[in-house]
Amino acid sequence: MMLLLLLLAAQPGPDASCVAVTRDLTGADPGSWEEWVASEPVTEPFRIHTLFSTPGRESPRFVILLEEGLSDSLEEGTLEQWAADMEPWTGEVLVAEMSYSAPESLRAWLFAQHALGLEGAVLVGDLPTAWVALDDAFSRSSEMFPADYFYMDLNGVWQDNWMGYPSAGDPGQDGKYDTWEQGSLGPEIFCARIKTSNLTVGTEAGLIQDYLDRVHQWRIYGDPGPHQALCYVDNDWATWGEDFARSMKLLYPDTEMINDLEQTCGTDYEENRLPVPYVWISPFVHSGPTVHQWNPGPETLWSEILSIDPPARFYNLFACSNARFTTPRNMGSLYTFATSSGLAAVGSTKSGSMLDFDYFYQPLGEGAMLGEAYSDWFEFITSGGFTPYEMSWHLGMVLIGDPTLRPAAELAGLPGAPEAGEASALSVAANPCAGSVLLTVRSAGDLMILDISGRAVLSIQAAAGDLALDLDGLPAGVYTAVLRSPSAGTASARFTLLHI
């Protein structure tokens, strides 16, 4: 891991101190604290009700937490299927419902579970949200915003010492975090959010049901190629477009970069980009929760996203407040839950965004789950201290959607896991392996070995049984074996090849 960090640090890239921060040009408060408080349920005592857990370890590695009663609104078997799809990659999955309680109670419970082996969580429905009052390090107006990083940094010291912003100098407590003790602010787990009750399109349960059905179908069947990403960089960041695209190519080698000053605009984005079947879109644009503000215009409104219904699966929104999940009709949630193709988005609930993209896209390109790569990125950002400058850029970051999805598996249209109760038609006997790989093939068919870019480096007809393949001529790295069998369909198994 240290070698990887050194290699990434040596890569050229934009200087974060020079990159313009995406901001809401309207100057409006994007979903205020007061509006959020008025719309949220009444806080209740903390309680957890376990619905079920997948077979395996005594302690869960991943937890699905739903608002109380939400499971009754979903179709029978939906949660069981979701957990079964996750389990091969996460380990044991606990599915539970919890009351709408104080954020501190949920954080304490996650901390206790982490001590027993918990690595990740997804919060589904209306569940507690921690808010921050942050004096901005960029000499702009200070901001109040929801911060789900509160549930990732489980042992850091977060304090509420001031009324309003610390700069006002008014001691007291007002329910918003404003002070941190440096030294242990790195992430302990990854955490994501699925909230649909404020999208005003469809119903809360209906949107979640459709989303989970879509996630399952994608895991099993994938999409037809080619798998192309879009790096769409508006004027204020056009200078760094090549650097942004270079990072995205660590996951998607076929990344199209658009940064022409006259070309990037609302009309081009809506008519010529969103309808194209990109698998991943990253717009770099001034925004609010419900709008992209292009230079030149016109704006792209939340309602236009719904009417276009883009076929993209994933979004990295370098777009101020665009993932502010507490705001009605926020675009990060609409892209993910209210389109017929969306699977996940990463973005910010405040001004700022992701930077140092290599630390996110590199793990994804190596087969990591979204949540793992997101946590790796935060680990880098907080290493050496989470400075006020870094907090102003990144403390509002949030992952929206299922954090256990693995975009790299989609490069070959691969299924993510066998159906619940079924044995895979293909498995790796020993992983990692050195020089050769031993596979167990349970159904005869066409067998390919793919590198991390999805390129076939070996293709043979395979009979059922144990099969040893000599890979000594291939470079060390992560590979995927893909079996296409007339009787068993498509199966895959990922392995790491070493040279000793």
Quick overview of this protein structure:
The protein has helices spanning 2-9, 33-39, 78-90, 103-115, 204-221, 241-248, 266-273, 302-308, 331-338, 358-365, 370-382, 388-394; strands at 48-53, 62-67, 93-98, 120-124, 131-134, 143-146, 157-159, 179-181, 190-194, 229-233, 255-258, 280-284, 286-288, 291-293, 300-301, 314-316, 344-348, 397-401, 426-428, 433-434, 436-441, 445-450, 456-462, 465-470, 477-485, 489-498.
What share of the residues does DSSP label as strand, in percent? 25-35%
- Read across the widest sheet, the strand sequence of neighbours is 11-10-12-16-17-18
- Separation, N- and C-terminal Cα atoms: 18 Å
How many E-type strands? Answer: 26
CATH topology (level 3) name of the largest domain: Rossmann fold
Runs in which pLDDT lies below 50 for 5 or more consecutive residues are 1-12, 415-421
How would the global form be characterised? globular
Mean pLDDT: 89
Seen as an oligomer or otherwise, the chain set is single chain
Radius of gyration: 22 Å
Number of helices: 12
Helix content: 10-25%
Q: State the name of the first-level CATH class of the largest domain.
A: Alpha Beta
CATH architecture descriptor name of the largest domain: 3-Layer(aba) Sandwich
Assign the structural class, choosing from mainly alpha, mainly beta, alpha/beta, alpha+beta, or little secondary structure: alpha/beta
Overall tally of domains: 2
Strand count, sense and barrel status of the largest sheet are: 6 strands, mixed
